[in-house]
From TrEMBL:
One Pfam entry name: ADH_zinc_N_2
InterPro entries reported in the protein's UniProt record: ADH-like_N, ER, GroES-like_sf, NAD(P)-bd_dom_sf, YIM1/Zinc_Alcohol_DH_Fams
Cited SMART domains: PKS_ER
Residues of the Enoyl reductase (ER) domain: 10-326
Top-rank taxon: Bacteria
GO molecular function annotation: oxidoreductase activity
The protein, known as: Bifunctional protein: zinc-containing alcohol dehydrogenase
Lineage: Bacteria, Pseudomonadati, Pseudomonadota, Alphaproteobacteria, Rhodobacterales
């Protein structure tokens, strides 16, 4: 089968086309003919940092975590899937799990679900990692009807789905972004857009929460921005972050009694713990998409497998609006 591999790690490393043996479906796995995959920030980090990250695969490496495709083989003990089924998931591209930058990949059946009927392969491939992350973060924060929720980075990969899911849960949603494109995306999801480059935290907290602060803040920006999330949160509120790779003073969180939740959705893949939860989330997400409650946002530029380097560069440029998707 055709695959795009890395023979070296580093910012200057290039993907190389290779002919690899087609994998087989082991027990509890399905073999998927990959039709599309998407690029996530963690993919670019693995490529750049290599073995400095404990989750990076050995070289030569086939990256790519998210995928949508068609079941070609069903392994022993697999139920719920059959040959020809259209599926999607986040099931490889790290540790010893081959990724989706290939014509075929084997996937643990617990990590996948039937593709939303309303979604194309491209749209479905954009969803798994960011969708699971958004779902888990909102669940941990206990977001419910009537709450005031702030999503930091509401036009980003995780952010645009967190906005829609929080709205579906009945929350009053505000989201930060900047520039006409980002703010238009946020408004299009029935959320209140906040231009973080123009509006001060104390001003939008006063305007939208009466000065009390938000009941939950979902921070997809992370790092130093966590301080802004603490400032925007109400007393005893929940703050969720997907980017906690930094040293930060937690005093503001302490004096507000905040609960801080760090979401790292790769844990089930890395440690084979509760993988079935990811399949369940994806199945529920598919129902919401088919009901019209959630819709993925895709960047306008299209790439095929041979252009994977350009796709990575597009994401890293900061110019993409929505998920960067690669067709296989």
């Amino acid at each position: 089968m055709k695959a795009m591999t890395l023979n070296d790690y580093g910012t200057e490393a290039s993907f190389v086309e290779a002919d690899m043996p087609r994998p087989a479906a082991a027990p509890d796995q399905v073999l998927v003919r990959v039709k599309a995959t998407s690029v996530n920030t963690i993919d670019t980090m693995i490529k750049a940092m290599g073995k400095d990250l404990p989750l990076s695969p050995d070289l030569p490496a086939v990256l790519g975590m998210d995928f949508a495709g068609i079941v070609e083989e069903v392994g022993e003990d697999v139920t719920g899937f059959a040959m020809g089924d259209e599926v999607y998931g986040c099931a490889g591209g790290l540790a010893d799990l081959q990724g989706a930058l290939a014509e075929f990949m084997s996937a643990d059946a617990r990590l996948i679900a039937h593709k939303p009927k309303a979604s194309s392969m491209r749209e479905a491939a954009a969803l798994p990692l960011v969708g699971i992350t958004a779902w888990e973060g909102l669940h941990r924060a206990g977001v419910a009807t009537g709450q005031k929720v702030l999503v930091q980075g509401g036009a980003g990969g995780v952010g645009h789905l967190a906005v829609q899911l929080a709205h579906h849960l009945g929350a009053e949603v505000s989201a930060t972004g900047t520039g006409d494109s980002q703010l238009s995306v946020i408004e299009g999801y029935d959320a209140r857009p906040i231009d973080f480059a123009v509006e001060k935290i104390e001003d939008y907290v006063a305007a939208h929460t009466g000065g009390a602060g938000f009941d939950a803040v979902f921070d997809t920006v992370g790092g130093a921005n966590l301080t802004n999330s603490f400032a925007a949160a109400a007393l005893n509120a929940h703050v969720v972050t997907t980017v906690a790779l930094s040293e930060i003073d937690l005093s503001p969180a302490h004096f507000k009694g905040l609960s801080l939740h760090i979401v790292f959705m790769l844990l089930p893949m890395l440690h084979d713990v509760r993988r079935e939860v990811h399949g369940e989330i994806l199945a529920n997400l598919a129902k919401l998409i088919d009901a019209g409650a959630v819709k993925p946002l895709l960047d306008e530029q299209r790439f095929d497998l041979s252009q994977i380097g350009e796709a990575y560069a597009r994401l890293q440029s900061g110019q993409a609006i929505g998920k960067v998707v690669v067709e296989v």
